[in-house]
Inverse folding.
């Protein structure tokens, strides 16, 4: 379980760091050519590079998912964490626009594309590894560790950014300090790589035979798999949208829309991520008892109903700081209700021969469309309309649609063995 979850931690640590430093990255890599007359253009360009990684995820899910389904889980998981660590470290060493000129943003986008490929292969292999080794009746809690390490990674990224910002002057932070959290990915990634290479073997499974142990290769995904992927996207698109709106995009939104300082935005994001982390494992355990459907439906409906009041509370100058802190914790906790049972729910939708490919592709597509574009869409629409409630409409609306897809879950899927 640790070997499966370690890569998620490193991946989401980097995404958390990138989200926190989006405004700094915009200044260092995109400002001169991208700005023009529009002051929001550099931030939009930074979020566009953020989105690029997500659109490479489906390709990574297919590439590494097929490798994991054919050759076993370990080779694919070792390869993706090695490449992810390398790309993240290189971002920390990348020359900015003042040094490399117009090549700087293109090099950043290239490294983000590599990260996207790796992240696309990470989820399917890790979730398959953890859920396939789960004891009977515990797939929810084992799969929840994937989401929990995502929360830990985001918290670690926000914490590293906050610590760096508190220790350095604004000029030093913008000049070179932002690189430090990215470079910390190197020792973190090497630790995760060591855990994965120490796995007993690439074909070790307990709940079902590994397709790679058969002389016949895993069959290519068919119409049934495609249908399950589309349904899976519908079931988790609310999770993707709400997670990125509340946990990743929030710092830049608070700074650009509400005029919060960088440190205030990081504190707010840390509180939301604490609420997210606190609810994931209990939600996974609860879904093993009552099923995936009621827990995930509760999370989707809570976001749909509460997203708008939440943002308006944050904007209220008369609201108490304790009320705002409680709202941030609660917003993160509602996303945790989706993220806790989500990995096990996806694993239960696909047979073992295409599990890594199927669930990885569903997750990658949902994240590409509804997470990777979240910052771009929210920033662009807020700038175009002047409506500060755009993030609430985005997260709440997609969670409402996701609730419709989640309503079709069978109530007993969590009880039977994996196919």
């Amino acid at each position: 379980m640790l070997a499966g979850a370690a890569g998620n931690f490193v991946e989401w640590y980097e995404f958390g760091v990138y989200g926190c430093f989006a405004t700094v990255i915009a200044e260092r890599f995109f400002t001169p050519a991208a700005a023009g007359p529009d002051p929001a253009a550099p931030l939009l360009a930074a979020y566009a590079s953020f989105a690029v990684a997500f659109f490479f995820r489906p390709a990574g899910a297919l590439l590494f998912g097929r490798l994991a389904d054919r050759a076993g889980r370990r080779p694919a998981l070792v390869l993706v964490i090695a490449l992810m660590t390398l790309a993240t470290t290189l971002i920390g060493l990348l020359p900015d626009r003042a040094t490399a000129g117009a090549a700087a943003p293109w090099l950043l986008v290239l490294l983000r594309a590599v990260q996207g490929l790796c992240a696309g292969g990470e989820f399917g292999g890790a979730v398959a590894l953890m859920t396939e080794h789960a004891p009977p009746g515990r797939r929810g809690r084992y799969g929840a560790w994937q989401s929990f390490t995502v929360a830990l990674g985001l918290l670690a990224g926000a914490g590293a950014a906050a610590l760096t910002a508190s220790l350095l002057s604004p000029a030093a932070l913008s000049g070179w300090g932002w690189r430090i959290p990215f470079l910390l990915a190197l020792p973190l990634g090497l630790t995760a790589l060591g855990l994965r290479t120490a796995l007993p073997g690439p074909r070790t499974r307990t709940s079902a035979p590994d397709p790679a142990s058969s002389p016949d290769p895993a069959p290519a995904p068919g119409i049934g798999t495609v249908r399950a992927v589309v349904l899976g996207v519908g079931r988790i698109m609310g999770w993707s949208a709400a997670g990125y709106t509340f946990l990743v995009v929030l710092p830049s939104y608070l700074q650009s829309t509400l005029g919060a300082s960088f440190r205030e935005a990081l504190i707010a994001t840390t509180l939301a991520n604490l609420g997210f982390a606190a609810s994931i494992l209990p939600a996974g355990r609860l879904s093993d008892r009552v099923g995936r459907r009621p827990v995930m439906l509760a999370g989707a409906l809570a976001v749909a109903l509460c997203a708008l009041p939440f943002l308006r509370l944050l904007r209220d100058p008369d609201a108490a700081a304790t009320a705002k802190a409680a709202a941030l914790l609660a917003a993160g906790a509602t996303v945790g209700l989706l993220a806790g049972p989500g990995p096990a729910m996806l694993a239960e939708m696909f047979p073992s021969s295409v599990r890594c490919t199927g669930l990885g592709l569903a997750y990658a597509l949902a994240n590409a469309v509804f997470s990777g574009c979240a910052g771009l869409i929210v920033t662009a629409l807020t700038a175009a309309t002047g409506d500060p409630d755009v993030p609430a409409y985005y997260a709440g609306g997609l969670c409402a649609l996701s609730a419709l897809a989640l309503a079709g879950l069978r109530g007993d899927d969590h009880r039977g063995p994996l196919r």
